[in-house]
Amino acid sequence: MGKCREAGAALRRRTARAVAALERRFGVPEWDGPEPPLDALVRTVLSQSTSDVNSGRAFDALKEQFPTWDEAFAAGPEAIEAAIRAGGLARQKSRRIHDLLGWVKERFGAFSLDAVQEMPTEQVFETLLPLDGVGVKTVAVMLLFACGRDCFPVDTHVHRIVRRVGLVPATASAERTFHLMKPLVPKGKALSFHVNLLTLGRTLCRPTDPKCPECPLRGMCDYAAGRA
Ligand code: SF4
After folding, report:
1. Predicted pLDDT of residue 203
2. CB of 204 within 8 A of CB of 31?
3. Domain stop point among 97, 112, 146
4. CA 137 – ligand 1 centroid, Å
5. Which end of the chain has fewer CB within 10 Å, C or N?
6. φ/ψ of residue 48, rounded to 5
7. Total number of domains in the chain
8. Is residue 58 located within the same domain as residue 100?
9. 204 CB under 6 A from ligand 1?
10. CB of 201 closer than 6 A to ligand 1?
11. Ligand 1 pocket: which of 218, 220, 227 to mutate (most atoms <8 Å of CB)?
């Protein structure tokens, strides 16, 4: 038990050093401000298995065609599918979005998820996770970016990097990584760490051939130590 606590403290210190090293290299990202949580959730459903550019285009096209969620729901899944075709997997995502809108209306009495702003974080997860196509990452992204909560999402870049660094076991799934990282990320640093890890994952710590000699985390990274 004592050893576990010690290991936990060491991991927390290593995580804090990683946060600081990334801020020195990439700066301290600023929050863009609030967004309607339902917009953020739909945006995240559209981002699954496609690039940010494609999902952004699909979201803009959807909002252009249906300025309100009432209109999108009334138009039906086929019309949503036609609007989001640029984003890939349009058939599957259009049904998910239509189902999501229907559930939100039934649960909250309006096409709005603003009520989650008043809920404790754990309750938001309990409420939204049973929905088809809505996972831990989707909810965490919504809470961080739309609601400004100090919640640390684990996307594909974050998952790869924190396992390489050794903050979580190499075999940890994305969902387990989310739970393991929760107590490690310093208070108030979820946005900074998440955004800077994305930048690192897109530039240096890419899936293949990571550029360790140029990386600000090289002195604390298990993967880099193994390579050396
Ligand atoms: S040192 Fe290499 S493996 Fe480790 S985080 Fe940096 S780029 Fe990735």
Report:
1. 97
2. no
3. 146
4. 22
5. N
6. -65, 130
7. 2
8. yes
9. yes
10. no
11. 218
